[in-house]
Design brief:
Elements lengths: L9 E3 L2 E3 L3 E7 L10 H5 L6 E8 L10 E8 L3 E2 L2 E2 L14 E7 L2 E7 L4 E6 L4 E4 L3 E7 L5 E8 L7 H6 L3 E6 L2 E6 L1
Antiparallel strand pairs: 1-2, 3-4, 4-5, 5-13, 6-7, 8-11, 8-13, 9-10, 9-12, 14-15
Pfam families: GPI (PF06560)
Keywords: Gluconeogenesis, Glycolysis, Isomerase
EC number: 5.3.1.9
């Protein structure tokens, strides 16, 4: 006997809902190794929200040929002149790629290859970004409202946050004369 079921998850607008959604919030206190201006960071509240993530993991972590889906919500703000951003990571399985799709707001996708060459792509509603394997990535909110984007990645990719925590990105995104600029670190 066949059956017809409702989906386990609903993705409507910028919202991901369902009983199987994992949620996490990152604050300035969680991101002390991310921002370059340590004095500006120390002057801010450690419990200040920087970003929220909602994810759907329909298969076990590490499953070959599976996919994960998530939505990230980055709040507007800066630490000194550096925009609020995600932690950033390589994939543990370095050859795995990923897609980001901007849903709302303005931002930059910051990409760094394994030779530490850094570049950035503008994000705006409707922009679609392919992140190739062997590329670290993080996202910054350069606007005055929430930056919201969805992501699709292989369930066996894993996350290597440690490499970025130890060495950082070779470039940082800062505001200069009212504009985002990718500056050498």
């Amino acid at each position: 006997m066949s059956s017809i079921n409702d989906p386990a998850v609903l993705f409507q607008g910028t919202t991901l809902e369902g009983p199987e959604i994992d949620r996490v919030t990152r604050t300035l206190g969680d991101l002390t190794d991310v921002f370059s201006d340590k004095d500006a960071l120390a002057a801010m509240a450690a419990d200040q929200k920087v970003y929220d993530v909602a994810c759907y993991f329909p298969v076990a972590d590490g499953t070959t040929a599976g996919l994960f889906f998530g939505i990230t919500y980055i709040y507007p703000g800066k630490v000194g002149t550096e925009y609020f951003m995600t932690r950033g990571h390589f994939h543990q399985l370095r050859d795995r790629g990923e897609f980001y799709h901007c849903l709302e707001g303005e931002g930059m996708l910051i990409l760094m290859d394994e030779d530490r060459q850094t570049r950035a792509e503008k994000m705006y509603p409707g922009s679609l970004h392919y992140i190739p394997g062997h590329t670290a990535h993080r996202t910054a909110n350069t606007g005055n409202s929430m930056l919201v984007f969805s992501a699709f990645w292989p369930s066996d990719a894993g996350h290597d946050y440690q490499s970025i925590s130890e060495k950082g990105f070779s470039g940082i995104l800062v505001e200069q004369n009212g504009e985002p600029v990718l500056a050498s670190k």
